[in-house]
Amino acid sequence: MLAILLILFTLFLNPKPTLSAITGEVVEIVSQSKIDQNQSQWIKIKLSNSNEVIINHQSQPLSSFTPYKVGEKVILTEQDGEFIITDYQRVDSLKMLFICFAVLAIIIAGKEGLLSIISMFVSFFILLKFTLPNLTSGQDPVLNISLTCLLIAPIIFYLSHGINKKTNIALLGTVIGIIFTSILAKLAINFTHLSGFASEEASFVAVEFMDKIDIRGLLLSGMIIGLLGVLDDITISQTSIVAELQQTNPSLSKTELYKKAMRVGKDHLSSMINTLILVYAGASLPLLMLFYQNGISIDSLNPEIIAEEIVRTLIGSIGIMIVVPLTTLIAANAFSTPHKSPLAKSKK
């Protein structure tokens, strides 16, 4: 998810294409035919340089045939003097979708929504200008991600929620949670013997950077920075609950504040754990289908590609379970009104 938003961010910082790709727009469907299972389409495309070409789009093995329509934008490459469509041009659509997201956030959340969007852009600016250059230069991933979290966390908290006691408490709970979960994640990676090479992307990184990148450290770093966004939500929510309870009934003691807030926190906790599990299940749905087709057994959990997602989910869930009561306890101590003893009242 973070990578997707990061790419969306670059759409606005660097709107010009960096690849030598040719863009074009479908202006006419010259002809379309189907013989047995083979389908083809002759398309007239107006290139970005205003030239027009006619291309034959044919069905390919192991892929569905999707006919192009007039007005659609495509990306092409030139081979031996002939143009070939390689993909749809999606940049404009992604921009429109992001604009819809931003407008809705501002309309519904108002000033807070606008500040959240600003904090998101600042966070990605730090990732682009500080974190990624350091990672690609071969520096320690865990150290760099830890520094990134220390830079990003105050920005997203104070910009999104303001500088106040509530935000201070939520930030403190988040920092403690990240430190604890980072240690736990490190132990879990070693305990389960994860190498970090479960995904193709990790293998590509190792090849691209000639093994100067610590892939296991990169795996741990991904868990840490992924947890930051989750903890932002849950720590602010729990602190807000305690603050609202105290304003509603200032006579509540620390213990009463904690117990009442934890009743809501338990519901929040269970929903966040379910969210984590469903998010990872959704991202791995094709893989799960393959496992189901070939039979699911206890041995199906053993491959690293599965074990890595299980560790990621469990570590994130444990982090949430630790942070909810911890943040609630800190908030209850901070917001509770001191009660004078009867003896002190009588002396007065």
Topology:
Elements: H1 2-13, E1 22-35, E2 38-47, E3 52-58, E4 73-79, E5 82-88, H2 91-109, H3 111-136, H4 141-161, H5 165-191, H6 200-208, H7 215-248, H8 254-283, H9 285-293, H10 304-335, H11 342-347
Antiparallel strand pairs: 1-2, 1-4, 2-3, 4-5
Helix pairs in contact: 2-3, 3-4, 4-5, 4-7, 5-7, 5-10, 7-8, 7-10, 8-10
What would you say about this model in short?
The chain has 348 residues and is α+β, with helices and mostly antiparallel strands. It has 11 helices and 5 strands; from the N terminus they run αβββββαααααααααα.
Key structural traits:
348 residues, alpha+beta, Multidrug efflux transporter AcrB transmembrane fold, 2 domains, globular
How would you characterize the overall build of this protein?
The chain is α+β, with helices and mostly antiparallel strands. The chain folds into 2 domains: 22-89; 115-335, Multidrug efflux transporter AcrB transmembrane fold (Up-down Bundle), CATH 1.20.1640. It is 65% helix and 13% strand. It has helices at 2-13, 91-109, 111-136, 141-161, 165-191, 200-208, 215-248, 254-283, 285-293, 304-335, 342-347, and strands at residues 22-35, 38-47, 52-58, 73-79, 82-88. A 5-stranded antiparallel sheet has the order 3-2-1-4-5, with no helix packed on it. β2 (38-47) and β3 form a beta hairpin. α5 (165-191) packs antiparallel against α10 (304-335). The chain is globular and about 80 Å long. The relative contact order is 0.09. Residues 341-348 have low confidence and may be disordered.
